[in-house]
Design a protein that fits this description.
Length: 162
């Protein structure tokens, strides 16, 4: 299911494949926020939509610094990461009306980290029934086309506290 063809996703994957090293270090250096799904750039952290989402609106708050360990994060990064997560939750509530959220950090491959070695906080909107097989299959089918639309909606709705 992850290999379903979509022109948009193929463009993203080819862009990501051209990225040597860590995408969370490289993406913010480029001036391609819309193509790379970057929603917001803060002082110490940025917000990016997950290109391989569990659910629509699945995003990540990522420190700019390449830090592998949660305990290696500085106070300013911890504060901004969590405040941005709250601001994103507000934007997701306003645009997508989820029934709940999962927030979490996977540390290390064994824990499911897709980008190992660069800490990132997942924010995943949840809807009742979204783990139902047919719902999941349906969303996987439509998600790749919808990602740029999701990006535009959230970009519009995201209000970051000063
Ligand atoms: Zn990195």
């Amino acid at each position: 299911m992850e290999t379903l063809y979509s022109p948009w996703r193929m463009a993203y994957i080819s862009s990501a494949e051209k990225t040597p090293g860590c995408i969370f270090c490289e993406f913010p250096k480029r001036n391609e926020d819309e193509a790379l799904l970057i929603l917001h750039r803060g002082k110490t952290c940025f917000v990016i939509l997950n290109a391989f989402p569990y659910n629509p609106g699945h995003l990540m708050v990522v420190p700019y610094r390449h830090v592998a360990d949660y305990e290696g994060l500085q106070d300013a990064e911890l504060l901004e990461m969590n405040r941005l997560a709250g601001d994103c939750i507000a934007a997701l509530k306003a645009t997508m009306v989820p029934h709940g959220f999962n927030m979490g950090i996977n540390l290390g491959r064994i824990a499911g980290a897709g980008v190992d070695g660069h800490v990132h906080l997942h924010v995943v909107p949840r809807w009742s029934g979204d783990t139902n097989f047919t719902t999941v299959v349906g969303q996987i089918r439509v998600l790749p086309e919808a990602l740029p639309v999701t990006w535009a909606k959230l970009k519009e709705a995201l209000v970051v506290r000063g």
